[in-house]
């Protein structure tokens, strides 16, 4: 009986490892979400391998354990690939950015969210699914006199970018063909330094291949931008998903590793980061933190600080 149980469990674990390992063969959209959980699944596979070996010590069980360890280790390596070198300078940051997916049906917490945004001391705030904040806009605009989005009532209120600093340029457009106006590209003036701010909200990766199309459009949009750039938003995928990886490499984007987990809320720090804030040189992150409260959203928000380096020197905040 023990031998039968051993081979049944081994067969199931072999299949599971093979499915996750398909990332090294193909970036199939249906499995993209699974790829985001490679580290978590790898740890589970290691535990399952040890259980199998406890039932029977056999060479195949050790092979499964080795494969599980490789998947886990490579997941950690991939996660750290896009971590910047960390600019821990003594200078004040050039600006602070908050990014938060409010959740489109989160009406009961809208007042608390508006209060939090006002008290955040962020220079720029990127809010996604911002419809619940419709009735707090005037209060927000008093603190953030420059804004993009939510100009035509609650039905048009999806992406909302708030800024204490003036916009040099501004554009709202679409990526992919599923949803409209989920890409905002703006130049923000920080005391004479123009920073390109891009807000993006991608579709869930298991919704057919829409995310693939969105990443292609986003790649083209960023390819036309020169100079300091920050990209923030809800990607609905981890940085280790193959499509996201390819995009980040091509655009030379960096964050801080490990990124704070933002989903699922119940998992806390053991979840995965599907909400991101990236920078492109000469812009560098000096801190990246998760908001203490999710305010009823199914995502945690992020707040980051940036410095701008030119010719080896850090631009001072003004």
From TrEMBL:
UniProt keyword terms in alphabetical order: Endonuclease, Hydrolase, Membrane, Nuclease, Transmembrane, Transmembrane helix
Domain Endonuclease/exonuclease/phosphatase, first and last residues per copy: 98-293
Top-level division of the source organism's lineage: Bacteria
Record Pfam families: Exo_endo_phos
InterPro entries for this protein: Endo/exonu/phosph_ase_sf, Endo/exonuclease/phosphatase
GO MF, any single term: endonuclease activity
Transmembrane residue ranges: 5-22, 28-53, 60-79
This protein's name: Endonuclease
Species of provenance: Rhizobium lentis
